[in-house]
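pls design
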Protein backbone atom coordinates (compact mmCIF):
# COMPACT_ATOMS: atom_id res chain seq x y z
CA UNK A 1 0.00 0.00 0.00
CA UNK A 2 1.49 3.36 -1.04
CA UNK A 3 1.85 6.30 1.30
CA UNK A 4 -0.58 8.28 -0.89
CA UNK A 5 -3.31 5.67 -0.44
CA UNK A 6 -2.77 5.60 3.32
CA UNK A 7 -3.46 9.35 3.49
CA UNK A 8 -6.52 9.36 1.22
CA UNK A 9 -9.08 8.98 4.01
CA UNK A 10 -7.49 11.55 6.39
CA UNK A 11 -7.32 14.05 3.51
CA UNK A 12 -11.01 13.57 2.70
CA UNK A 13 -11.86 14.04 6.36
CA UNK A 14 -9.65 17.15 6.56
CA UNK A 15 -11.47 18.60 3.55
CA UNK A 16 -14.94 18.31 5.07
CA UNK A 17 -13.91 19.23 8.62
CA UNK A 18 -12.06 22.25 7.24
CA UNK A 19 -15.30 23.42 5.59
CA UNK A 20 -17.18 22.99 8.88
CA UNK A 21 -14.50 24.95 10.77
CA UNK A 22 -14.73 27.78 8.23
CA UNK A 23 -18.52 27.85 8.73
CA UNK A 24 -17.93 28.08 12.49
CA UNK A 25 -15.68 31.10 12.00
CA UNK A 26 -18.37 32.85 9.98
CA UNK A 27 -20.85 32.17 12.80
CA UNK A 28 -18.64 34.18 15.19
CA UNK A 29 -19.06 37.38 13.17
CA UNK A 30 -22.65 38.23 14.24
CA UNK A 31 -21.54 37.95 17.88
CA UNK A 32 -18.66 40.32 17.12
CA UNK A 33 -21.23 42.65 15.53
CA UNK A 34 -23.32 42.60 18.71
CA UNK A 35 -20.24 43.58 20.74
CA UNK A 36 -19.54 46.46 18.37
CA UNK A 37 -23.12 47.72 18.57
CA UNK A 38 -23.16 47.75 22.39
CA UNK A 39 -19.63 49.18 22.63
CA UNK A 40 -17.76 46.13 23.94
CA UNK A 41 -14.42 46.76 22.27
CA UNK A 42 -12.44 44.00 24.02
CA UNK A 43 -15.09 41.37 23.35
CA UNK A 44 -15.39 42.46 19.71
CA UNK A 45 -11.63 42.15 19.24
CA UNK A 46 -11.60 38.72 20.93
CA UNK A 47 -14.42 37.46 18.71
CA UNK A 48 -12.85 38.94 15.58
CA UNK A 49 -9.46 37.39 16.37
CA UNK A 50 -11.13 34.06 17.13
CA UNK A 51 -12.95 34.16 13.80
CA UNK A 52 -9.71 34.94 11.97
CA UNK A 53 -7.74 32.14 13.64
CA UNK A 54 -10.57 29.67 13.11
CA UNK A 55 -11.02 30.64 9.45
CA UNK A 56 -7.27 30.36 8.81
CA UNK A 57 -7.08 26.90 10.36
CA UNK A 58 -10.16 25.77 8.45
CA UNK A 59 -8.79 27.17 5.20
CA UNK A 60 -5.50 25.32 5.61
CA UNK A 61 -7.31 22.07 6.36
CA UNK A 62 -9.77 22.52 3.48
CA UNK A 63 -7.55 24.00 0.80
CA UNK A 64 -4.09 22.53 1.42
CA UNK A 65 -4.44 19.40 3.56
CA UNK A 66 -7.79 18.16 2.33
CA UNK A 67 -8.91 16.45 -0.83
CA UNK A 68 -12.47 16.64 -2.26
CA UNK A 69 -14.21 13.30 -2.75
CA UNK A 70 -17.50 11.58 -2.13
CA UNK A 71 -17.51 10.20 1.42
CA UNK A 72 -18.16 6.58 2.22
CA UNK A 73 -20.48 5.68 5.10
CA UNK A 74 -17.63 4.98 7.52
CA UNK A 75 -15.95 8.25 6.54
CA UNK A 76 -19.23 10.01 7.26
CA UNK A 77 -19.24 8.57 10.78
CA UNK A 78 -15.60 9.51 11.29
CA UNK A 79 -16.21 13.05 10.07
CA UNK A 80 -19.17 13.58 12.37
CA UNK A 81 -17.34 12.19 15.38
CA UNK A 82 -14.21 14.28 14.82
CA UNK A 83 -15.95 17.49 13.71
CA UNK A 84 -17.68 18.06 17.04
CA UNK A 85 -14.39 17.82 18.93
CA UNK A 86 -12.65 20.16 16.48
CA UNK A 87 -15.31 22.89 16.35
CA UNK A 88 -15.55 22.81 20.14
CA UNK A 89 -11.81 23.50 20.40
CA UNK A 90 -12.04 26.50 18.06
CA UNK A 91 -15.35 27.60 19.55
CA UNK A 92 -13.69 28.05 22.93
CA UNK A 93 -11.30 30.71 21.58
CA UNK A 94 -13.63 33.70 22.20
CA UNK A 95 -13.81 32.82 25.91
CA UNK A 96 -10.03 32.40 26.13
CA UNK A 97 -9.03 35.45 24.07
CA UNK A 98 -11.43 37.71 25.99
CA UNK A 99 -10.35 36.34 29.35
CA UNK A 100 -13.99 35.73 30.31
CA UNK A 101 -13.16 32.07 30.94
CA UNK A 102 -9.38 31.90 31.34
CA UNK A 103 -9.19 28.14 31.96
CA UNK A 104 -8.79 26.06 28.79
CA UNK A 105 -10.68 23.18 30.39
CA UNK A 106 -13.58 25.39 31.48
CA UNK A 107 -13.75 27.15 28.10
CA UNK A 108 -13.78 23.81 26.26
CA UNK A 109 -16.45 22.46 28.63
CA UNK A 110 -18.66 25.52 28.09
CA UNK A 111 -18.27 25.31 24.31
CA UNK A 112 -18.96 21.59 24.13
CA UNK A 113 -22.01 22.18 26.29
CA UNK A 114 -23.09 24.81 23.77
CA UNK A 115 -22.58 22.89 20.53
CA UNK A 116 -24.11 19.72 22.00
CA UNK A 117 -27.06 21.79 23.32
CA UNK A 118 -26.48 20.41 26.80
CA UNK A 119 -26.70 23.65 28.73
CA UNK A 120 -24.36 22.61 31.56
CA UNK A 121 -22.32 25.63 32.59
CA UNK A 122 -19.40 26.52 34.82
CA UNK A 123 -20.67 30.11 35.12
CA UNK A 124 -22.40 31.17 38.33
CA UNK A 125 -23.94 34.19 36.62
CA UNK A 126 -23.94 34.27 32.79
CA UNK A 127 -25.10 37.87 32.95
CA UNK A 128 -21.56 38.89 33.89
CA UNK A 129 -20.34 37.96 30.40
CA UNK A 130 -20.18 40.65 27.71
CA UNK A 131 -23.25 40.60 25.48
CA UNK A 132 -21.22 39.56 22.45
CA UNK A 133 -20.02 36.45 24.26
CA UNK A 134 -23.54 35.74 25.50
CA UNK A 135 -24.70 35.91 21.89
CA UNK A 136 -21.89 33.56 20.80
CA UNK A 137 -22.82 31.23 23.64
CA UNK A 138 -26.43 31.14 22.39
CA UNK A 139 -25.27 30.81 18.77
CA UNK A 140 -23.30 27.65 19.55
CA UNK A 141 -26.52 26.06 20.81
CA UNK A 142 -28.60 27.28 17.89
CA UNK A 143 -26.11 25.83 15.41
CA UNK A 144 -25.74 22.62 17.38
CA UNK A 145 -29.50 22.23 17.67
CA UNK A 146 -30.20 21.30 14.09
CA UNK A 147 -26.61 20.20 13.68
CA UNK A 148 -23.50 21.93 12.41
CA UNK A 149 -23.04 18.98 10.09
CA UNK A 150 -26.54 19.32 8.63
CA UNK A 151 -25.90 23.03 8.08
CA UNK A 152 -22.77 22.13 6.16
CA UNK A 153 -24.62 19.42 4.24
CA UNK A 154 -26.77 22.15 2.73
CA UNK A 155 -23.69 23.88 1.26
CA UNK A 156 -21.30 20.95 0.71
CA UNK A 157 -22.58 20.28 -2.85
CA UNK A 158 -21.04 23.65 -3.75
CA UNK A 159 -17.73 22.15 -2.62
CA UNK A 160 -18.22 18.93 -4.57
CA UNK A 161 -18.93 16.76 -1.51
CA UNK A 162 -22.08 14.71 -0.98
CA UNK A 163 -23.87 14.97 2.33
CA UNK A 164 -26.01 11.85 2.71
CA UNK A 165 -23.26 9.92 4.50
CA UNK A 166 -22.91 12.74 7.03
CA UNK A 167 -26.66 12.80 7.58
CA UNK A 168 -26.81 9.04 8.14
CA UNK A 169 -24.10 9.34 10.76
CA UNK A 170 -25.84 12.15 12.66
CA UNK A 171 -29.50 11.34 12.02
CA UNK A 172 -31.31 10.79 15.34
CA UNK A 173 -33.75 8.29 13.84
CA UNK A 174 -33.34 4.95 12.07
CA UNK A 175 -32.78 6.76 8.74
CA UNK A 176 -32.71 10.41 7.66
CA UNK A 177 -36.30 11.64 7.16
CA UNK A 178 -36.33 13.20 3.71
CA UNK A 179 -38.91 15.72 2.60
CA UNK A 180 -37.53 15.77 -0.94
CA UNK A 181 -35.52 13.30 -3.06
CA UNK A 182 -32.37 15.40 -2.55
CA UNK A 183 -31.12 15.57 1.00
CA UNK A 184 -29.59 19.00 0.47
CA UNK A 185 -33.02 20.43 -0.30
CA UNK A 186 -34.45 18.66 2.75
CA UNK A 187 -31.73 20.23 4.93
CA UNK A 188 -32.49 23.69 3.53
CA UNK A 189 -36.22 23.33 4.21
CA UNK A 190 -35.68 22.12 7.75
CA UNK A 191 -33.28 24.97 8.48
CA UNK A 192 -35.79 27.46 7.05
CA UNK A 193 -38.52 26.10 9.34
CA UNK A 194 -36.08 26.09 12.25
CA UNK A 195 -35.20 29.74 11.64
CA UNK A 196 -38.87 30.72 11.19
CA UNK A 197 -39.92 29.15 14.50
CA UNK A 198 -36.94 30.81 16.20
CA UNK A 199 -37.97 34.21 14.82
CA UNK A 200 -41.60 33.68 15.87
CA UNK A 201 -40.60 32.81 19.40
CA UNK A 202 -38.28 35.82 19.59
CA UNK A 203 -41.15 38.13 18.62
CA UNK A 204 -43.48 36.60 21.21
CA UNK A 205 -40.85 36.84 23.94
CA UNK A 206 -40.07 40.45 22.97
CA UNK A 207 -43.78 41.21 23.40
CA UNK A 208 -43.49 40.07 27.02
CA UNK A 209 -40.98 41.10 29.66
CA UNK A 210 -37.78 40.37 27.73
CA UNK A 211 -35.80 42.97 25.84
CA UNK A 212 -34.82 42.26 22.22
CA UNK A 213 -31.43 40.79 23.10
CA UNK A 214 -32.90 38.46 25.73
CA UNK A 215 -35.70 37.43 23.38
CA UNK A 216 -33.32 36.50 20.56
CA UNK A 217 -30.82 34.62 22.73
CA UNK A 218 -33.54 32.70 24.57
CA UNK A 219 -35.28 31.80 21.32
CA UNK A 220 -31.92 30.48 20.05
CA UNK A 221 -31.50 28.30 23.12
CA UNK A 222 -35.14 27.19 23.28
CA UNK A 223 -35.53 25.97 19.70
CA UNK A 224 -32.18 24.18 20.01
CA UNK A 225 -33.33 22.64 23.31
CA UNK A 226 -30.07 23.97 24.72
CA UNK A 227 -31.05 25.89 27.83
CA UNK A 228 -28.33 28.54 28.04
CA UNK A 229 -29.81 31.73 29.50
CA UNK A 230 -28.70 35.24 30.27
CA UNK A 231 -29.60 35.24 33.97
CA UNK A 232 -28.26 33.34 36.97
CA UNK A 233 -31.81 32.20 37.81
CA UNK A 234 -32.52 30.78 34.32
CA UNK A 235 -36.19 31.63 33.56
CA UNK A 236 -37.35 32.06 37.16
CA UNK A 237 -37.04 35.83 37.00
CA UNK A 238 -39.45 36.22 34.09
CA UNK A 239 -43.23 36.34 34.24
CA UNK A 240 -45.86 33.67 33.65
CA UNK A 241 -46.46 34.77 30.03
CA UNK A 242 -42.79 34.31 29.13
CA UNK A 243 -42.64 30.93 30.87
CA UNK A 244 -45.70 29.65 28.97
CA UNK A 245 -44.31 30.85 25.63
CA UNK A 246 -41.03 29.04 26.28
CA UNK A 247 -42.92 25.91 27.41
CA UNK A 248 -44.84 25.77 24.12
CA UNK A 249 -41.74 26.24 21.99
CA UNK A 250 -39.75 23.69 24.01
CA UNK A 251 -42.51 21.19 23.25
CA UNK A 252 -42.39 22.11 19.55
CA UNK A 253 -38.60 21.80 19.50
CA UNK A 254 -38.88 18.34 21.03
CA UNK A 255 -41.04 17.16 18.12
CA UNK A 256 -39.80 16.14 14.68
CA UNK A 257 -39.12 19.11 12.40
CA UNK A 258 -39.95 17.00 9.37
CA UNK A 259 -43.35 16.34 10.98
CA UNK A 260 -43.80 20.07 11.58
CA UNK A 261 -43.07 20.70 7.92
CA UNK A 262 -45.64 18.14 6.77
CA UNK A 263 -48.19 19.43 9.27
CA UNK A 264 -48.05 22.88 7.66
CA UNK A 265 -50.03 21.38 4.78
CA UNK A 266 -51.80 18.63 6.69
CA UNK A 267 -52.30 19.32 10.42
CA UNK A 268 -53.73 15.84 10.98
CA UNK A 269 -50.18 14.54 10.48
CA UNK A 270 -49.59 15.14 14.18
CA UNK A 271 -52.42 12.87 15.31
CA UNK A 272 -51.53 10.21 12.73
CA UNK A 273 -47.90 10.00 13.80
CA UNK A 274 -47.43 7.25 16.46
CA UNK A 275 -44.26 8.74 17.91
CA UNK A 276 -45.85 12.18 18.32
CA UNK A 277 -48.84 10.62 20.08
CA UNK A 278 -46.51 8.82 22.49
CA UNK A 279 -44.43 11.99 22.98
CA UNK A 280 -47.56 14.02 23.78
CA UNK A 281 -48.94 11.36 26.15
CA UNK A 282 -45.67 11.11 28.07
CA UNK A 283 -45.49 14.91 28.36
CA UNK A 284 -49.09 15.26 29.61
CA UNK A 285 -48.74 12.41 32.11
CA UNK A 286 -45.44 13.84 33.39
CA UNK A 287 -47.00 17.28 33.86
CA UNK A 288 -49.99 15.83 35.75
CA UNK A 289 -47.76 13.79 38.08
CA UNK A 290 -45.44 16.71 38.87
CA UNK A 291 -48.35 19.16 39.23
CA UNK A 292 -50.06 16.78 41.67
CA UNK A 293 -46.90 16.57 43.75
CA UNK A 294 -46.46 20.34 43.82
CA UNK A 295 -50.12 20.92 44.66
CA UNK A 296 -49.85 18.52 47.60
CA UNK A 297 -46.77 20.44 48.74
CA UNK A 298 -48.90 23.57 49.06
CA UNK A 299 -48.53 25.34 45.70
CA UNK A 300 -51.56 27.02 44.13
CA UNK A 301 -53.19 25.25 41.20
CA UNK A 302 -51.95 27.80 38.64
CA UNK A 303 -48.38 27.82 39.91
CA UNK A 304 -48.28 24.03 40.29
CA UNK A 305 -49.48 23.49 36.72
CA UNK A 306 -47.17 26.16 35.28
CA UNK A 307 -44.05 24.94 37.08
CA UNK A 308 -44.90 21.32 36.33
CA UNK A 309 -45.47 22.03 32.64
CA UNK A 310 -42.32 24.11 32.28
CA UNK A 311 -39.90 21.89 34.16
CA UNK A 312 -41.28 18.52 33.01
CA UNK A 313 -41.26 19.61 29.36
CA UNK A 314 -37.81 21.12 29.86
CA UNK A 315 -36.45 17.77 31.10
CA UNK A 316 -38.27 15.61 28.53
CA UNK A 317 -37.08 17.78 25.64
CA UNK A 318 -33.60 17.98 27.26
CA UNK A 319 -33.70 21.80 27.17
CA UNK A 320 -32.59 22.33 30.76
CA UNK A 321 -34.30 25.64 31.51
CA UNK A 322 -35.76 25.91 35.01
CA UNK A 323 -38.24 28.15 36.81
CA UNK A 324 -37.40 26.77 40.23
CA UNK A 325 -34.80 24.64 41.99
CA UNK A 326 -36.37 21.22 41.46
CA UNK A 327 -33.52 19.83 43.54
CA UNK A 328 -35.48 21.09 46.56
CA UNK A 329 -38.65 19.19 45.60
CA UNK A 330 -39.69 16.09 47.50
CA UNK A 331 -37.46 13.05 46.75
CA UNK A 332 -40.19 11.19 44.81
CA UNK A 333 -40.48 14.06 42.30
CA UNK A 334 -36.70 14.28 41.97
CA UNK A 335 -36.47 10.57 41.18
CA UNK A 336 -39.28 11.00 38.65
CA UNK A 337 -37.40 13.84 36.93
CA UNK A 338 -34.27 11.67 36.72
CA UNK A 339 -36.40 9.03 35.00
CA UNK A 340 -37.59 11.64 32.49
CA UNK A 341 -33.93 12.35 31.65
CA UNK A 342 -33.78 8.95 29.93
CA UNK A 343 -36.69 9.59 27.55
CA UNK A 344 -36.03 12.61 25.34
CA UNK A 345 -38.00 14.07 22.45
CA UNK A 346 -38.84 12.68 19.04
CA UNK A 347 -36.45 11.49 16.36
CA UNK A 348 -35.73 14.37 14.01
CA UNK A 349 -36.04 16.95 16.80
CA UNK A 350 -33.30 18.99 18.43
CA UNK A 351 -33.75 17.05 21.70
CA UNK A 352 -31.24 14.57 23.04
CA UNK A 353 -31.39 11.48 25.28
CA UNK A 354 -32.76 8.07 24.22
CA UNK A 355 -35.67 9.42 22.08
CA UNK A 356 -39.36 8.62 22.31
CA UNK A 357 -39.45 6.18 19.39
CA UNK A 358 -36.78 4.01 21.02
CA UNK A 359 -38.61 4.05 24.35
CA UNK A 360 -41.82 2.99 22.58
CA UNK A 361 -40.21 0.20 20.59
CA UNK A 362 -38.22 -1.07 23.58
CA UNK A 363 -41.44 -1.26 25.59
CA UNK A 364 -43.29 -3.10 22.81
CA UNK A 365 -40.38 -5.52 22.32
CA UNK A 366 -40.20 -6.21 26.06
CA UNK A 367 -43.91 -7.05 26.17
CA UNK A 368 -43.48 -9.34 23.16
CA UNK A 369 -40.60 -11.14 24.91
CA UNK A 370 -42.72 -11.67 28.01
CA UNK A 371 -45.52 -13.14 25.91
CA UNK A 372 -43.02 -15.49 24.23
CA UNK A 373 -42.07 -16.86 27.66
CA UNK A 374 -45.70 -17.70 28.37
CA UNK A 375 -46.39 -18.95 24.83
CA UNK A 376 -43.11 -20.44 23.52
CA UNK A 377 -44.66 -21.47 20.19
CA UNK A 378 -46.44 -18.20 19.58
CA UNK A 379 -45.45 -15.70 16.90
CA UNK A 380 -45.43 -12.14 18.22
CA UNK A 381 -44.75 -9.11 16.05
CA UNK A 382 -43.44 -5.83 17.43
CA UNK A 383 -45.40 -2.90 16.06
CA UNK A 384 -45.04 0.82 16.53
CA UNK A 385 -48.35 2.37 15.62
CA UNK A 386 -49.64 0.29 12.72
CA UNK A 387 -46.22 -0.37 11.27
CA UNK A 388 -44.31 -3.58 11.90
CA UNK A 389 -40.84 -3.03 13.31
CA UNK A 390 -38.26 -5.31 11.71
CA UNK A 391 -36.29 -7.59 14.01
CA UNK A 392 -32.99 -6.00 12.97
CA UNK A 393 -34.34 -2.55 13.94
CA UNK A 394 -35.43 -3.87 17.34
CA UNK A 395 -31.99 -5.42 17.87
CA UNK A 396 -30.31 -2.16 16.85
CA UNK A 397 -32.40 -0.18 19.34
CA UNK A 398 -31.69 -2.71 22.08
CA UNK A 399 -27.97 -2.43 21.32
CA UNK A 400 -28.18 1.35 21.44
CA UNK A 401 -29.90 1.29 24.83
CA UNK A 402 -27.35 -1.21 26.13
CA UNK A 403 -24.47 1.04 25.03
CA UNK A 404 -26.29 4.09 26.43
CA UNK A 405 -26.61 2.52 29.86
CA UNK A 406 -23.05 1.17 29.67
CA UNK A 407 -21.72 4.69 28.99
CA UNK A 408 -23.89 6.06 31.81
CA UNK A 409 -22.71 3.53 34.39
CA UNK A 410 -19.05 3.60 33.31
CA UNK A 411 -18.93 7.40 33.27
CA UNK A 412 -20.62 7.61 36.67
CA UNK A 413 -17.97 5.27 38.08
CA UNK A 414 -15.14 7.22 36.45
CA UNK A 415 -16.45 10.58 37.65
CA UNK A 416 -16.82 9.21 41.19
CA UNK A 417 -13.29 7.77 40.98
CA UNK A 418 -11.87 11.10 39.75
CA UNK A 419 -13.70 12.96 42.50
CA UNK A 420 -12.52 10.56 45.21
CA UNK A 421 -8.88 10.89 44.16
CA UNK A 422 -8.97 14.66 43.93
CA UNK A 423 -10.52 14.96 47.41
CA UNK A 424 -13.64 16.79 46.28
CA UNK A 425 -16.95 16.37 48.10
CA UNK A 426 -19.44 15.37 45.42
CA UNK A 427 -21.99 12.75 46.43
CA UNK A 428 -23.38 9.95 44.28
CA UNK A 429 -26.56 11.91 43.51
CA UNK A 430 -24.45 14.71 42.07
CA UNK A 431 -22.15 12.49 40.01
CA UNK A 432 -24.89 10.20 38.66
CA UNK A 433 -27.22 13.06 37.75
CA UNK A 434 -24.33 15.03 36.21
CA UNK A 435 -23.55 12.10 33.93
CA UNK A 436 -27.25 11.50 33.13
CA UNK A 437 -27.74 15.20 32.35
CA UNK A 438 -24.59 15.33 30.21
CA UNK A 439 -25.28 12.12 28.30
CA UNK A 440 -28.88 13.18 27.68
CA UNK A 441 -27.76 16.74 26.78
CA UNK A 442 -30.04 18.16 29.48
CA UNK A 443 -27.76 20.39 31.56
CA UNK A 444 -28.89 20.75 35.16
CA UNK A 445 -28.94 17.67 37.34
CA UNK A 446 -29.42 17.27 41.07
CA UNK A 447 -27.30 17.99 44.12
CA UNK A 448 -24.31 20.22 43.47
CA UNK A 449 -25.13 20.46 39.73
CA UNK A 450 -28.81 21.32 40.19
CA UNK A 451 -30.65 24.29 38.64
CA UNK A 452 -29.54 26.59 41.47
CA UNK A 453 -25.88 25.56 41.06
CA UNK A 454 -23.43 24.91 38.21
CA UNK A 455 -20.63 22.55 37.17
CA UNK A 456 -17.76 24.66 38.54
CA UNK A 457 -17.23 22.27 41.47
CA UNK A 458 -16.47 19.34 39.12
CA UNK A 459 -12.69 18.65 38.95
CA UNK A 460 -10.96 19.57 35.69
CA UNK A 461 -10.48 15.97 34.62
CA UNK A 462 -14.14 15.35 35.44
CA UNK A 463 -15.18 18.25 33.22
CA UNK A 464 -13.22 16.77 30.31
CA UNK A 465 -14.93 13.43 30.95
CA UNK A 466 -18.36 15.07 30.97
CA UNK A 467 -17.52 17.04 27.82
CA UNK A 468 -16.76 13.76 26.08
CA UNK A 469 -20.00 12.29 27.44
CA UNK A 470 -21.92 15.28 26.03
CA UNK A 471 -20.53 14.66 22.55
CA UNK A 472 -21.22 10.93 22.82
CA UNK A 473 -24.80 11.70 23.79
CA UNK A 474 -25.31 14.34 21.11
CA UNK A 475 -24.06 12.03 18.36
CA UNK A 476 -26.03 9.10 19.79
CA UNK A 477 -23.16 6.88 20.90
CA UNK A 478 -22.04 5.09 17.75
CA UNK A 479 -20.21 7.80 15.69
CA UNK A 480 -17.93 8.53 18.65
CA UNK A 481 -17.39 4.92 19.75
CA UNK A 482 -16.56 3.98 16.16
CA UNK A 483 -13.61 6.39 16.28
CA UNK A 484 -11.94 3.96 18.69
CA UNK A 485 -12.44 0.84 16.56
CA UNK A 486 -9.70 -0.49 14.31
CA UNK A 487 -12.10 -1.42 11.50
CA UNK A 488 -13.12 2.21 10.91
CA UNK A 489 -9.57 3.19 9.98
CA UNK A 490 -8.73 0.16 7.88
CA UNK A 491 -9.03 0.40 4.13
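designed seq:
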Amino acid sequence: MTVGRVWEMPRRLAYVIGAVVIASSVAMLPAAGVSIVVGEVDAALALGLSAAVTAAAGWVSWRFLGRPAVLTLREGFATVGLAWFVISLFGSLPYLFSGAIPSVTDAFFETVSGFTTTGASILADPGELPRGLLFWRATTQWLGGMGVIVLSVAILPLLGVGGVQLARAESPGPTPDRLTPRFQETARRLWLLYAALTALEALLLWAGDMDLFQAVTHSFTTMSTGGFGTEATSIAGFGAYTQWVITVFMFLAGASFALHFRALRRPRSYLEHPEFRLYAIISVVAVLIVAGGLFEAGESVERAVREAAFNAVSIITTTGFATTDFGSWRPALQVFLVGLMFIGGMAGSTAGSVKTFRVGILSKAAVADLRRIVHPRGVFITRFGRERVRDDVVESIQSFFLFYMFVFMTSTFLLSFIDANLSEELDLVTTASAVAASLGNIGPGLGDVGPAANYAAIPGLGKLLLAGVMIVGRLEIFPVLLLFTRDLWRR
